[in-house]
Amino acid sequence: MSNSSIRHPSSYRDPSGFIFEKDGVLYRQVNTIFREDYELFIHSGCYEKLVSKGLLIPHETIHENWTGSDEWYLTLKPEQLAFISYPYEWSFDMLKDAALLTLQLVKEATAAGLILKDATPYNIQWHQGKLLFIDTLSFEKYNEEEPWIAYRQFCECFLSPLLLMHYSKISLQRLSLAYPEGIPLAVTKSFLPRRSKFSLHTYLHIHLHEGVAGKKRVEEKRKIKFSKQKLLNLVNSLETLILRLKSPEQTTTWSDYYEEASQRNDYLEQKKKIIEGWLDKAVDIRTGADLGANDGVFSRLLSARGIPTVAADLDPLCINNLYREIRKTGEKYIQPLIIDLSDPSPAIGVNNEERNSFISRLHVDMILALALIHHLAIGKNIPLALIAKLFAGMTRHLIIEFVPKDDPKVQEMLQQKKDIYTDYRQERFEEEMSKYFLIEEKQGVPGTGRVLFNMRRIV
Amino acid sequence: MMHNWLLYIDPGSGSYLVQVLIAAVLGVGFFFRNLRTYVKSIFSRSEKTPTDNHPSA
Predict the structure, then answer these.
(1) I need a surface site. Which of A47, A344, A425, B31 has the fewest CB within 10 A?
(2) Three-class SS string for A26-57?
(3) Could you say which of B7, B16, B22 has the minimum Cβ distance to residue A224?
(4) For strand A334-338 and strand A451-457, is the pairing parallel, antiparallel, or unpaired?
């Protein structure tokens, strides 16, 4: 590999090709070993069809070997993504739609004489307002006599977490962090209630699947015969099952927040007005994030300006509602994600380089952190010094709201715990933030003791 | 024939076999569903028959 291009640490599994970075742009190399399958993918019209349906990321073909590799056949330059996210940061309906997208790809591919050779949610990313497939080298020549090679992977990566959330009514994104290669069937089966066996499709794809796949048997040389119709039956059955699954719908702490907050005078409107004024003056903001986004009211102040914005919140239901809203409106610039800022997604995988931590991925020009600080400082006991460092590591511009201790919301929190937060005062907050940021403006939100700050990083 | 070098993901011992079993079960299900649709279509066709037989002008 030449000095100017760096192979991506997560791109090592598939011999068909790999992702590399050159001058800040990500490319995909197709290796000669995959030439025949890739040509079929293109010449069958499958690529064209998937791109025109908005299911697959489009690319340009470049006939230059930038990696210096002997295996080089072609270089692809896919449309670049604003932000990489992982399935353990997605809400239920995001994962559900990713699963349905995967099944749709299997059907589209087989119609063109190809098959999807892997079924991992890591091949799906958020791009311009929706999830789409990014691994152009996942399609290979279809042999109708073979069963689906990625069937188990699909069941473990998609079906398992969805079923567990459906039956338990609990958001279990974190399980996918513990099992990045998919939740093993035996684990899923042991956590599912007995009544799940009475759902035919759940019984087949989890209980029976685990029963047969889990048994040690003498290697059978018997030829297994499959057919396209059988594959379609299998895929339709998975689809039927997934369409029936429902997100954990119980009301969480934050899902009613704005409804309640909006009753407090015109608090939200006042806040919006101040922030809009500051955003009008801000220059050079190309990427943004709204941390503690709730239903995305403030994320939209950024996204409405065409700024790709990550809307992160620790509440899975808020993020799921935001996702459903975006799916309806077709908004292109908000990316909803479930993130707990007191414990953001870690780096995982080989050398801890395969999937990067949330903090190392989130480098944006502007962060909004509204009605958030008391949850970190008082809710999670994080010292103001660490909070200042956290924001300084992620952004150049920060619009942050300080919520004083006498605020009714803080008082509510303090009812249940001892007030050990002697340091939680506006002066101390300003002092700690000033170690990294220049406070350019501050303004109280009328009718409350809350203060908004507009800051620019200095170090 | 599947190229061996492409088997970079482990399909799982038994995951191939189970697909055959599941396809068989689903096949039976789809057979009966199709049969039901077919039978229904016979009845609905016979109901429509008189209107279909209007003499053409």
Answers:
(1) B31
(2) EEEEEEHHHHHHHHHHHHCCHHHHHHHCCCEC
(3) B16
(4) unpaired
DSSP 3-state of A339: coil
Whole-complex ipTM: 0.76
**Residue A155: which of A60, A255, A242 has the closest Cα?**
A242
Closest partner residue to A15 (CB to CB) among B8, B19, B27 is: B8
Contact A212 B18 (CB under 8 A): yes
CB-closest option in B2, B5, B20 to A143 = B2
B19 vs A148: CB contact, 8 Å cut-off?
yes
Give residue A111's identity as a one-letter amino acid code.
A
Vertex A95: Cα angle to A213 and A364 (nearest 5): 130
How many CB atoms sit inside 10 A of residue A13's CB? 14
Per the DSSP assignment, residues forming a β-bridge with A115 are A140
Q: List per-residue pLDDT tens for chain A, 459 residues long.
A: 555 778 888 877 888 999 999 999 999 999 999 999 999 999 999 999 999 999 999 999 999 999 999 999 999 999 999 999 999 999 999 999 999 999 999 999 999 999 999 999 999 999 999 999 999 999 999 999 999 999 999 999 999 999 999 999 999 999 999 999 999 999 999 999 999 999 999 999 999 999 988 776 655 556 678 999 999 999 999 999 999 999 987 545 555 565 565 556 588 999 999 999 999 998 889 999 999 999 999 999 999 999 999 999 999 999 999 999 999 999 999 999 999 999 999 999 999 989 999 999 999 999 999 999 999 999 999 999 999 999 999 999 999 999 999 999 999 999 988 888 899 999 999 999 999 999 999 999 998 999 999 999 997
Rg (CA), chain A: 24
Contacts of A33 (CB under 8 A, 6+ apart): A15, A16, A71, B5
B53: Cβ–Cβ under 8 A, 6 or more apart, which residues?
none
Show residues of chain A in contact with B32, CB under 8 Å. Answer: none
Mutate to test the interface with A, among B2, B3, B18, B30 (most CBs of A within 10 A): B18
Distances (CA, A) of A395 to A83, A254, A438, A456: 14, 25, 13, 9
Nearest Cα residue in chain B from A139: B6
Cα angle, residue B8 at apex, residues B6 and B12 outer, rounded to 5°: 115
Sign of CA dihedral A74, A79, A83, A86: negative
Q: Is A218 on the interface with B (CB under 8 A)?
A: no
Q: A289, A309 in Cβ contact below 8 A? A: yes
Contact: A151, B15; criterion CB under 8 Å: yes
